[in-house]
């Protein structure tokens, strides 16, 4: 199924983030069956608070298509967008957003807010959720579990040293 | 007064946008009395839906300070932030947001939403509104009035031609 095909590509991006020690979130933008933008979270690497997967993918797609309007594009992202990314998706006039798993802490596409489908703004997207949800969720929980373990060990090292 | 001093700098940025035919919105970021980031709306010039004044100022400040955390920074912007920019402000952990005039169409710092002070997110900002409100509002209404006039003339030219 196409949704899963492109979500797998978003997961490939997430894995790039993971390998670099970044919170593993990935996104791709698809137009007419072609991937026109890719991104993974690079906040720490770039020291840029706006360097989320969706933002990077949107900027890449806009540059490639030479247009800030991405009306005929769909965005696939492993985690539900935060307010910034949901707002950028509206700004870019993305047609459909497909995401893997919900974000209970900042999700702004249905969980805490639904910026993508607020009729007071000048654009609304279609939305499909739960695609490859388990993989999208597991990559994050595994990352954070390892991070907690590492911090615990560092703390113990300090106590012992 | 300092609020007005820095809002005047944000207005200077807005005027740069105006001169380039962009919707005139400007922003500056201030840390310890120094401007560490500047930005004006460049959406059309850059063909980038994320190239709002606030986003550019945040990215510049993060690059200059070599940190995605802008905790000790204040952001001045002529127009109330949209969801994307309000979300970026939260991501960057900005301390205080000062804005000139409300945005009834997309304002997400009190008008349609208040992303800056939603306690469900992991950061909230202080907020000061209405600083040099008239200037910040007039530059926008003048711009849009001229744009409408230009479109009307172009339509008439077509009809007459």
UniProtKB/TrEMBL annotation, chains A, B:
<feature type="binding site">
    <location>
        <position position="52"/>
    </location>
    <ligand>
        <name>Zn(2+)</name>
    </ligand>
</feature>
<dbReference type="GO" id="GO:0052717">
    <property type="term" value="F:tRNA-specific adenosine-34 deaminase activity"/>
</dbReference>
<dbReference type="InterPro" id="IPR016192">
    <property type="entry name" value="APOBEC/CMP_deaminase_Zn-bd"/>
</dbReference>
<dbReference type="InterPro" id="IPR016193">
    <property type="entry name" value="Cytidine_deaminase-like"/>
</dbReference>
<feature type="binding site">
    <location>
        <position position="82"/>
    </location>
    <ligand>
        <name>Zn(2+)</name>
    </ligand>
</feature>
<feature type="domain" description="CMP/dCMP-type deaminase">
    <location>
        <begin position="1"/>
        <end position="113"/>
    </location>
</feature>
<keyword id="KW-0819">tRNA processing</keyword>
<dbReference type="Pfam" id="PF14437">
    <property type="entry name" value="MafB19-deam"/>
</dbReference>
<comment type="function">
    <text>Catalyzes the deamination of adenosine to inosine at the wobble position 34 of tRNA(Arg2).</text>
</comment>
<feature type="binding site">
    <location>
        <position position="85"/>
    </location>
    <ligand>
        <name>Zn(2+)</name>
    </ligand>
</feature>
<feature type="active site" description="Proton donor">
    <location>
        <position position="54"/>
    </location>
</feature>
<comment type="subunit">
    <text>Homodimer.</text>
</comment>
<dbReference type="InterPro" id="IPR058535">
    <property type="entry name" value="MafB19-deam"/>
</dbReference>
<comment type="similarity">
    <text>Belongs to the cytidine and deoxycytidylate deaminase family. ADAT2 subfamily.</text>
</comment>
<dbReference type="InterPro" id="IPR002125">
    <property type="entry name" value="CMP_dCMP_dom"/>
</dbReference>
<keyword id="KW-0378">Hydrolase</keyword>
<dbReference type="InterPro" id="IPR028883">
    <property type="entry name" value="tRNA_aden_deaminase"/>
</dbReference>
<keyword id="KW-0862">Zinc</keyword>
<protein>
    <recommendedName>
        <fullName>tRNA-specific adenosine deaminase</fullName>
        <ecNumber>3.5.4.33</ecNumber>
    </recommendedName>
</protein>
<dbReference type="GO" id="GO:0008270">
    <property type="term" value="F:zinc ion binding"/>
</dbReference>
<keyword id="KW-0479">Metal-binding</keyword>
<dbReference type="GO" id="GO:0002100">
    <property type="term" value="P:tRNA wobble adenosine to inosine editing"/>
</dbReference>
């Amino acid at each position: 199924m196409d949704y899963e095909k492109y979500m797998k590509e978003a997961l490939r991006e997430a894995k790039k983030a993971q390998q670099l020690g970044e919170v593993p979130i990935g996104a791709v933008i698809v137009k007419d069956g072609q991937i026109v933008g890719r991104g993974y979270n690079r906040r720490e690497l770039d020291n840029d608070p706006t360097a989320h997967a969706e933002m990077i993918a949107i900027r890449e797609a806009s540059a490639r298509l030479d247009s800030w309007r991405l009306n005929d594009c769909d965005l696939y992202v492993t985690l539900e967008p935060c307010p910034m990314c949901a707002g950028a998706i509206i700004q870019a006039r993305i047609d459909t957003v497909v995401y893997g798993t919900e974000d209970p802490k900042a999700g702004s596409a249905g969980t805490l807010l639904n910026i993508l489908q607020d009729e007071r703004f000048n654009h609304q997207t279609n939305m499909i959720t739960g695609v490859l949800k388990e993989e999208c969720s597991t990559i994050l929980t595994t990352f954070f579990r390892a991070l907690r373990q590492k911090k615990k060990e560092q703390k113990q090292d300090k106590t012992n040293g």
